[in-house]
Amino acid sequence: MDSGFGKIIVVADGPTCTGFRLAGVQEVYPAEGKDAERKIDELMGVEDAGVIITSEKIMDALDWRLKKKLDHAAKPVIIVVPDKNGPMEQKDSLASQVKKALGFELMK
Question: Which domain covers residue 77, as residue numbers?
Answer without folding.
Answer: 7-102
